[in-house]
Amino acid sequence: MLRIKNLKCSYGSIVAVHGVSLSVKKGELISIIGANGAGKSTLLLAICGLLKNWEGEIVFQDKDLKGMSPPAIVRSGISMVPEGRQIFSPLSVMDNLKMGAYTMYRKGLKSQVEEDFDMVMEMFPILRERAHQLAGTLSGGEQQMLAIGRALMARPRLLVLDEPSMGLAPKIVEMIFNVITTLQSQGVTILLVEQNARAALKISHRGYVLETGKMVLQGSADELLVDDDVKRAYLGRDYGDFYDGRDA
Amino acid sequence: MDDNKKKQWTENTIFLVVILGCGLGVDNTYYLQIMTFIGINTLLALGLNMLMGYAGQVSLGHAAFYGIGAYTTAILSGTYGISPWAALVCAVSCAVFIAFVVGLPTLKLSGYYLGMGTLGFGMIVNILFREWSTVTGGSSGFVGIPMLEAGPVSFMSGRNYFFLVWMVVLVAVLLCRRILSSRMGRALRSIHDGENASLAVGVNTHFLKLQIFMFSAALGAVAGFLYAHFVMFISPESFGFMVSVKMVTMVVIGGMASVWGALLGASLLTLLPEVLHGFAEYEMIIFGLILMVVMIFMPQGLTRGLLDIYEHSRKRDKRHGN
């Protein structure tokens, strides 16, 4: 569904992504993990067209995304839940969701928008309660739900999430990840970018590990979860592991 | 949803009643004249408010569109004797076209840079009014703008002109509110915080800003048209940099992102200089002080500030009542 080949992105003379390749098949849940500054967000910005100067190839459903504007990319079926949520704080919750359906209204699909409202409200009942409240007054977790709801309103074929767990309480993170799993089981293809590697890999089919702009590892999520390098670098080790073989 | 519509209807009706009341109840020509100026300034503030208050784009050259509207109708109807109503159409189209040409590159800028870009544009237009004296009358101004007539109705009298201006304001208010509650209005308010998220939901932000820039230019041109035929004499000073600044002040003082804020800001900035005439040379000092006090105590503008005071006192009354 999405194929990236040899992608290079740079900000001025600083190269953030060096020749990354990856692929996402229809219906898959793929996670990209890596530390701060590994180039994860840059990669997503390139996919969504928010970053212009990249080299290489990004193909979504046999369509080359090179040179396409962000709105055109959204219309082709990719929706992003941006890093740090970026909900529209001066707008009400309802209006935020309507904004998510911006391209749907443009196509004149009003009745579908109504359906999608109900779908999102069912998924996040708290948003129904808060429908007329300004989005800026929501808590962090509610804002994240709103950001996901907003992205779903465009009926994406590929949903891209940038660090949905950032800054949230563990309980909320669990809930958000449950929603992501549910969406995947409903047939939405998902590309998840996370620092919270263990949680992300647990729900994913496959994973990619990005390090200083290079793809250093890839494989099925189960393999990565037990991979020693991944464990050392991203998952943290148990206290027991650390002393194994030393004090014995 | 419906509550909101009902509220809007009530507000609009009250507004209409106030206009009728002022127009029919006031006989003093001076007061009618001041209120007409308030109406013209409200149009300017409304247009700029859409751009600044909602879309978050600062323009420091908006008086240029005001001037383009005024000079286009002055030249066409004064020099060439074309009907002022036809000149109005030309004035608006001209302003919209120029806004398109200027906005295309400048709206790619943001923040201070956009301010600088529009500032430059405003100055160029003003120099044009001043130096192209064979057409515009130069710095001594343009004399001989005809008065407005519509069939048997003459707008010579202060009262008729008052009604003309305020009916246009009413239509503009309705139009702005219609736009704001539409899909376009939501998108407009969404880019206020930053454009990336809006782009990410599929809004073509550059085109949207361009559209609203053209819309506010059109309102400016209409205001210029009404001004020219009211005063019947125009000169470059009326459309200079200070006027652009005054327009920005109206929007900020009245309260950004509020249609009634534009009205309040325009009223205050038109009335204050009149009221402060008595203070002679201290006028500007007092004027500046009032603006400072408003900004310090009501940083969200007068509309929000007054509403807050009202809600606060109502809450307190409730507490005391129990």
From TrEMBL, chain A:
Database matches in PROSITE patterns: ABC_TRANSPORTER_1, ABC_TRANSPORTER_2
Coiled coil: none
Annotated CDD domains: ABC_TM1139_LivF_branched
GO molecular-function terms, A-Z: ATP binding; ATP hydrolysis activity; branched-chain amino acid transmembrane transporter activity
Keyword Nucleotide-binding attributed: yes
Pfam families in UniProt: ABC_tran (PF00005)
Keyword tags: Amino-acid transport, ATP-binding, Nucleotide-binding, Transport
Residue ranges of every copy of the ABC transporter domain listed in the record: 2-237
Keyword Transport attributed: yes
InterPro entries: AAA+_ATPase, ABC_branched_ATPase_LivF/BraG, ABC_transporter-like_ATP-bd, ABC_transporter-like_CS, BCAA_Transport_ATP-bd_LivF, P-loop_NTPase
GO biological process: L-amino acid transport
Family classification: Belongs to the ABC transporter superfamily.
Annotated protein name in UniProt: Amino acid/amide ABC transporter ATP-binding protein 2, HAAT family
Phylogenetic placement of the source organism: Bacteria, Pseudomonadati, Thermodesulfobacteriota, Desulfobacteria, Desulfobacterales
TrEMBL record, chain B:
Cell compartment(s), UniProt: Cell membrane
Keywords, sorted A to Z: Cell membrane, Membrane, Transmembrane, Transmembrane helix
Tagged with keyword Transmembrane helix: yes
Any one GO cellular component localisation term in the record: plasma membrane
Coiled coil: none
Pfam family, one: BPD_transp_2
Topology within the bilayer: Multi-pass membrane protein
Signal peptide range: none
One GO MF term: branched-chain amino acid transmembrane transporter activity
Transmembrane segments: 9-26, 86-104, 111-129, 161-180, 212-235, 247-272, 284-302
UniProt keyword Ribonucleoprotein present: no
Protein name: Amino acid/amide ABC transporter membrane protein 2, HAAT family
